[in-house]
Amino acid sequence: xxxxxxxxxxxxxxxxxxxxxxxxxxxxxxxxxxxxxxxxxxxxxxxxxxxxxxxxxxxxxxxxxxxxxxxxxxxxxxxxxxxxxxxxxxxxxxxxxxxxxxxxxxxxxxxxxxxxxxxxxxxxxxxxxxxxxxxxxxxxxxxxxxxxxxxxxxxxxxxxxxxxxxxxxxxxxxxxxxxxxxxxxxxxxxxxxxxxxxxxxxxxxxxxxxxxxxxxxxxxxxxxxxxxxxxxxxxxxxxxxxxxxxxxxxxxxxxxxxxxxxxxxxxxxxxxxxxxxxxxxxxxxxxxxxxxxxxxxxxxxxxxxxxxxxxxxxxxxxxxxxxxxxxxxxxxxxxx
Length: 336
What we know:
Layout: H1 83-108, H2 115-127, H3 129-156, H4 159-165, H5 186-197, H6 199-220, H7 227-231, H8 234-249, H9 254-266, H10 278-282, H11 287-297, H12 299-305, H13 308-318, H14 320-335
Helix pairs in contact: 1-2, 1-3, 5-6, 5-9, 6-8, 8-14, 13-14
């Protein structure tokens, strides 16, 4: 079982030196093969031909070591069709079976069907009902399994992104408003995070988070995976805190960075849903909304930095200058 972390202390893991970066804005060929020459017959002074020199027996060549068989590729998950396509295919298959039976019976009777014939066929179809139900059930189970697997693969591919969004995900449930945080901002949030952290740091955090998820899964056996297990892992909390501090230290020129952030997010909003309200369609991220989002995003960092022990730990991992800028950012997020 995965234990929840101690709320009074956050233990730091990983390589501190690797986190101290803050972001501002075919082989050689063997040419030693020997050429073999045919032995020459040399004429002796007597005029008789000399026997050809005896060639040395070549050294036995080492037997090639059998290569290990390549691991079997992971089974590919079928790309599931839409529910409409699945139901359409199932209905077409059933109707085709019924119509085929009717046609075959009519051919046997010279092109006509009597009410008695139809009654007999109804009884035959009723006898096959269990088989038809089993086919429907199997198709629906396959479809549901494919959908679940596809969703899991998509979510598993971005555990670090999920970890960061988790910090302010409760704000995404609010109705659209001037100070609200709507999920339409997520593409811009991902871009801003990547630019402030840098691609190498983001890649490293993604790998660490994927490793944490894999480790949790390996310990679960048949127990269903729950993302809360991942969020509460101490290693995941460490990744989140490191990322939060680097992001906060990127707001050294707070006003300029806020304007840049708003422009980036509002230029990459996801299109509103078809059933979106007028408020959702007109929504864009405002400065009050951004400060609310940042306050939630940096909530764990604020808790750690509130104690001298926590600040010293972050200084060891990221340096005194980065921590000083982060502290200023945390104040500006609240005071504006």
